Amino acid sequence: MKITLFALNSSYTHTNLAVRCIRKSLADAGYAADIVEHNLKDKRGAILGALYAADADIYGFSAYIWNITELLSFASDLKKLRPNAVIVFGGPEVSYNARELLEAHSFIDCVITGEGESAFVSIARSLEAGEPIPAIIEGGIYNNFGDSGILYTPKELAGERRMLYYESSRGCPYRCAYCLSALSGKVRAKTVGQTLDELYKFESLAADIKVIKLVDRTFNFDRERAKAIWRGLLDDKYTKCYHFEICAELLDEESYQLLVSFPKGKVQLEIGVQSTNRATLERVSRHTDLDKLLASISRLCSLGNMHIHVDLIAGLPGEGLESFAHSFDELYGRLHDGHGDEVGGCEFMLQLGFLKLLYGSKLREESESFGCIYSDSPPYTVLATDCLSFDELELLHNIDSLLDRYVNSGVFRRAVRTAMKHTASPFMLLRGLAERFRRDGIRITELSQPRAYAAFYDYCCEMMDCTDNSDMAAALTLDFLTSQKTAPPKFGSFRIERLDQNTASAEKHRFMRYTDTCGIDYFAPALEAMCASGGVYVVDRRNGRAFKHDGEGYLEI
Fold first, then answer.
1. What pLDDT does residue 107 have?
2. Who is most buried in 49, 388, 480, 518, counting CB within 10 A?
3. pLDDT on residue 60
4. Predicted local confidence at residue 161, as pLDDT
5. What local confidence, expressed as pLDDT, does residue 121 receive?
6. Which DSSP letter does residue 265 get?
7. Which pLDDT score is estimated for 73?
8. How many CB atoms sit inside 10 A of residue 198's CB?
9. What is the pTM of this model?
């Protein structure tokens, strides 16, 4: 009997952990399974060809909101080509509307709801015994979760993927009304020793992989367990970058001391805040000590050695545009000081999400209670609420695009920092930019990088009521030089030019002598010496750094 598990990921950097869990449970039961894994950008013909070539008796489709439309199309065609094959769907997108899905799509033979490891084994046994397969199988709780291991084969770890996934616990202790994890039951966790042993396996099997993302819904639900794992990962033998989704208000003093002990870049933290509107949090059953949460974010940022990723969700009940703007500014202020500089030099990302009313979620059932209009098509994004109009949500989508392009990308860091010094509200700065782009008919997705720099300069001059701004021009020029390979655009009257060969060589040697005494790391072949009316600069293009000579030494800017 041949079994093929199909994963369709959102991008090449992602891998699907669910199909690997199923493969492991099948192997434990004596069944071999192959994985066909592609991403949404792959050519459709190539994907369908791979599925057809597998010539399997059972095909398992791993369904999520981002791939369900494509999966249904592939399954329909595959059933025509392999009419005797059993088509099985499973995953969060089909676990709460299984009967409706089966009625609408006759090519689906079976839907697994909930956790699928045991259920898929039962399908294989039924087919092998010639017994009928139920149309719907309740997966229930998989009791052998702790035996899963790291799930990847050596062959799968030999590619150039940037990120791999690991599950050290399953389930969530919280009951947020918008999230399916609220329905996942009691948290089950691997022991500290098992987790550390399995994470260490990535060292020898995945030498080129940089990031291991733990998909635990709340990694530090058990504070002592989390601290023990962090303590273990401080050992130099663990060389990866580890990504954790945490509840920040559960951190204690020892947690902070452990986290600050990590080398810079070894830990990434993701923190779901969603809103700072207390009434909104209450309405979505998100019970949190908001003051402690925000204070924790501030402290984590001040440590300066981690990437901090903080989430907001637009479209939640009771939150209009003004309230969302306040939530945005409240969080942005935690990540930056009063001058727009990153707190503690931390790497940060403020991410805007948009409420999606998932099948099975409490908010989908209660959508009428907050006047919610949402799309019938996946991913069921909210279109309007009684507090937020469609136009306002469209504005927020545009602000989200600008946030990613200008702030989260990091390549406009100096310019954003300069602009933020001239506004009391980071949200209003981005809103103004979005409205200017809409007025001028500029589409951010179609904007070339040089044009994006020029458009930001024009907007900032308008915001500051001037026609020429040397500080902004210098900031944008240095941002361009440290992130792009071509010559920067001209901004107003500001001009910067490479020094002649002899002068540049002398300047670079002076810079290197200075950095040797200060322990500053740089890449010598990438150094370029520049001169402008504001002084002399040395730019390390490879590392994205720029230094200004201040008469005695060099100041990084």
1. 98
2. 388
3. 98
4. 64
5. 97
6. T
7. 98
8. 17
9. 0.91
In the chain, which stretches have pLDDT less than 70? Answer: 159-161, 182, 184-185, 336-346
The structure tokens 């592939």 sit at: 74
How far is the C-alpha of 103 from the C-alpha of 461, rounded, in Å?
58
Q: What is the 3-state secondary structure (H, E, C) of 356-375?
A: ECCCCCHHHHCHHHHCCEEC
> What's the CA gap between 29 and 256, in Å, rounded?
43
Q: Provide the pLDDT for residue 185.
A: 67
Contact status, residue 351 vs residue 425, Cβ threshold 8 Å: no
Predicted local confidence at residue 197, as pLDDT? 97
Beta-carbon contacts of residue 131 (< 8 Å; ≥ 6 apart): none
CA dist 482 and 450 (Å) reads: 13
Residues sharing a CB contact under 8 Å with residue 186, sequence separation 6 or more, in sequence order = 171
Beta bridge partners of 315: none
Is residue 102 within 8 A of residue 111, CB to CB? The reply is yes
- Token representation of residue 170: 């399953």
DSSP string computed for 391-426: HHHHHHHHHHHHIIIIIITSTTHHHHHHHHTT-S-H
Say if residues 261 and 238 touch (Cβ distance below 8 Å): no
Measure the CA–CA gap between 431 and 454, rounded to whole angstroms: 18
Question: What is the C-alpha separation between 473 and 477, in angstroms, rounded?
Answer: 6
d(C-alpha 15, C-alpha 9), whole Å: 7
CA within 13 Å, CB half, 525: 0
Residue holding tokens 């691997």? Answer: 190
- What tokens does 106 get? 């006759």
Kindly give, in sequence order, each residue whose CB lies less than 8 Å from that of residue 528, ignoring residues fewer than 6 positions away: 481, 498, 504, 538, 539, 541
> Look-up: residue for tokens 């990308």?
409
Q: What angle do CA 97, 98, 103 make, to 5 degrees?
A: 105
CA dihedral for 483, 489, 495, 501, sign (positive or negative): positive
pLDDT number for residue 224: 97
**Cβ atoms 299, 259 nearer than 8 A:** no
Do 212 and 164 contact (CB within 8 A), yes or no? yes
pLDDT for the residue numbered 363: 95
On whether the CB atoms of residues 209 and 162 are closer than 8 A, the answer is yes
What is the strand order of the sheet 347-354 is part of?
163-166, 211-214, 241-246, 267-274, 307-314, 347-354
